[in-house]
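quick q for whoever's on today - can somebody do inverse folding on this one?? i tried earlier but teh output was garbage lol. tokens:
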């Protein structure tokens, strides 16, 4: 898997990880990571979920449309796109989403959280977050002082001897 593919997988899982852990004690109980690593993943997920840098224009985060005080759904009659134009989107609640096998009624082929998060993150019609792959990597790199320690605490990344020698 490419570095970009790994990054998208990790980011998509982490964007929803605070909701998953909050909404399901079963999820938390079945995790095999140690408490420190789990805490780091939850913290990283909260940062990603609330980070406006993950939208193309920097004007929204996942939390805009998935508000915790409204059952992890939106506060809009018509969800605005990143340009402020109303759309026909209906934001699904993330509550108990860990227990679902299909995440969007309009998109029954989306059967994993990893695939589902790509829709709002990279969609252009309408542009929900309007993000591009290269811009996502750039924005995460720009916030490296925040994200690097959180990613390192969340994941054990095994490097080959060749990769280690390149780092020194």
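ok took a stab at it. sequence:
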């Amino acid at each position: 898997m490419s570095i970009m593919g790994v990054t998208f997988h990790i980011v998509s899982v982490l964007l929803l990880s605070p909701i998953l852990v909050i909404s399901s004690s079963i999820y938390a109980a079945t995790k095999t990571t140690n408490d420190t690593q789990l805490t780091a993943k939850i913290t990283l997920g909260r940062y990603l979920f609330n980070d406006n840098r993950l939208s193309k224009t920097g004007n929204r985060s996942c939390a805009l449309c998935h508000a915790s005080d409204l059952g992890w759904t939106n506060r809009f009659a018509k969800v605005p796109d990143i340009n402020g134009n109303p759309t026909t989107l209906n934001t699904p609640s993330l509550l108990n989403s860990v227990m679902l096998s299909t995440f969007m009624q309009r998109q029954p082929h989306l059967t994993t959280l990893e695939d589902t998060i790509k829709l709002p993150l990279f969609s252009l019609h309408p542009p929900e977050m309007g993000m591009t792959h290269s811009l996502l990597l750039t924005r995460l790199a720009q916030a490296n002082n925040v994200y690097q320690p959180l990613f390192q605490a969340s994941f054990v990344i095994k490097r080959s001897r060749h990769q280690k020698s390149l780092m020194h």
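fwiw Residues 20-27 have pLDDT under 50 and may be disordered. also The helical segments are 3-23, 25-30, 35-49, 62-65, 113-122, 133-142, 144-154, 161-167. so keep that in mind when u check it
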